[in-house]
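Because discrete structure vocabularies remain unfamiliar, we turn briefly to a single example record, giving the amino acid sequence and backbone structure tokens:
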Amino acid sequence: QVQLVEFGGGSVQAGGSLRLSCTAPERDFSGRAWAWFRQTPGKEREFVAAITGSSSTTYYADSVKGRFTLSRNYNKNMVDLQMAALNTGDTAVYFCAVHYLPELSSTQAMNEHTYEFWGQGTQVTVSS
């Protein structure tokens, strides 16, 4: 079972910043589409951001647009999610995901069922 590994979560005060990273230690996904989703207890998993493989087109949820930036590092088979101006509504477990094909439409990017590979999640807690 291919696993993605997320790291960089933690606790921060509102207005602060965090960077999440995700890598695939066992497989080369450097040319694929990657995404981040988040989930809070009792709620469905919510799309955060995605980046395509070939063109590096990015998609963002409206709630994070202008505050979060998703980028990729081909050499490290890794993506980084830079989160700024965090608020308590950003508190969640954040999951990294990969789609085996390099390209995604915006509709596909926002659908968790598009992605075949997932990490186990990392907690982000924003306090007021």
About this structure: The first strand starts at residue 5 and ends at 7. The chain has a mean pLDDT of 94.
